[in-house]
Design goal:
Shape: elongated
Distance between the termini: 29 Å
Structural class: alpha+beta
Helix content: 10-25%
Strand order of the largest sheet: 1-4
Order of helices and strands: EEHEE
Oligomer: single chain
Radius of gyration: 21 Å
Length: 90
């Protein structure tokens, strides 16, 4: 005989960018950005900024890399840790 599995579903709330609600005493985590140079005819340059916390730092890295290499195409990656809130059982 096979095993029987019962699944129970639950609603979850996940913050949507631009519509964030915070509970008292909770703070948003910092947004972390990075950039990678994807300029190159046969292969991407691959130079990366590493993680930065401010847009100014990221722009400074891109401008410096472009001034040194003449590269103009970058990929920006932005991440933030969020918390999912469990709701009622369905």
């Amino acid at each position: 005989m096979g095993a029987t599995t019962r699944l129970r579903f639950r609603e979850y709330t996940v913050p949507v960018p631009g519509a964030q609600t915070l509970t008292q005493g909770e703070e948003l985590s910092a947004t972390i950005s990075s950039a990678e140079c994807v300029t190159g005819a046969e292969a991407d340059c691959g130079a990366a900024s590493g993680d930065v916390l401010s847009t100014d730092e990221l722009v400074r890295w891109i401008a410096t890399h472009q001034a040194r290499t003449g590269h103009e195409i970058f990929e920006q990656i932005t991440r933030r840790v969020i918390r999912s809130e469990a709701g009622m059982w369905l």
